[in-house]
Amino acid sequence: MKIIRVLEEIRSPENVAGMARYGIATKNALGVPMPMLRDLAKEISRDTDLRPHIHSLALELWDTKVHEARILAGLIDDPEFVTDSQMERWVMDFDSWDVCDQICSNLFDKTGPALKKVGEWGKRKEEFVKRAGFVLMAALAVHDKDAEDKTFLNFLAAIKRESTDERNFVRKAVNWALRGIGKRNLSLNKAAVKCAKEIQKIDSKAARWIASDALRELTSAPVLKRLNKVKSKKSVVKTS
């Protein structure tokens, strides 16, 4: 496959070693930096011969199992063609936090089943599947500009429920989701802060870390200053 040959030509064993130090799975990694992958994705997307077959190409790249090819698949795939079954198949292949995060924030958050998967994956036991649910939640908070506040208010119960998961990749994603919601607008900030204070009272090391870290950012002067300029989307929030 031509694209795999291109990736192999720019591989870097030194980068692979660096990836491992950051907890990235490197079994099938080539060490190609993200800026290069993004540039390659742009080239592929501009190619008039490849554009009509972009979804099939993304599926082929995923099936190579090459670490960077899978990230590239998420960068080029057309979300309109991504099905529920594809999302389920890919999420079960997640074996590294960076692949999980890149696929969720570059592709899955733009798909039709995104909201459904947030609810489903957040309840699952598999570490990277559960992480995917909360990364997807965080990505939607940033990227879905038209979503109403009630969508994100509904996420807070899941955040509180899963805040006791001690696994590092899960607790960091739960924290990320809480912070993402709280930085969307002032109304959601108040709801997220309230949720964080409730989580802080839970007898769990993970929960206390999630809450304390989130509160530190969500109550900071720079965040509140920015949020005072942002309008909410049809928000009805009870903070009492």
Element layout with pairings:
Blueprint: H1 2-9, H2 13-21, H3 34-46, H4 54-63, H5 67-76, H6 84-93, H7 97-106, H8 114-121, H9 127-143, H10 149-153, H11 155-161, H12 168-182, H13 186-200, H14 205-218, H15 221-227
Helix pairs in contact: 3-5, 4-5, 5-7, 7-9, 8-9, 9-12, 12-13, 12-14, 13-14
Overview of this structure, please?
With 240 residues, the protein is mostly helical. It has 2 domains: 1-77, no CATH class; 97-240, Serine Threonine Protein Phosphatase 5, Tetratricopeptide repeat, CATH 1.25.40. 66% of the residues lie in helices and 0% in strands. The longest helix is centred in the middle third of the chain and has 17 residues, at 127-143. It is globular.
Oligomer: single chain
Largest sheet: none
- General shape: globular
Low-confidence stretches: 235-240
SSE pattern: HHHHHHHHHHHHHHH
Identify the notable features of this structure and list them briefly.
mainly alpha; 240 residues; 2 domains
Summarize the structure.
This protein has 240 residues and is mostly helical. The chain is 66% helix and 0% strand.
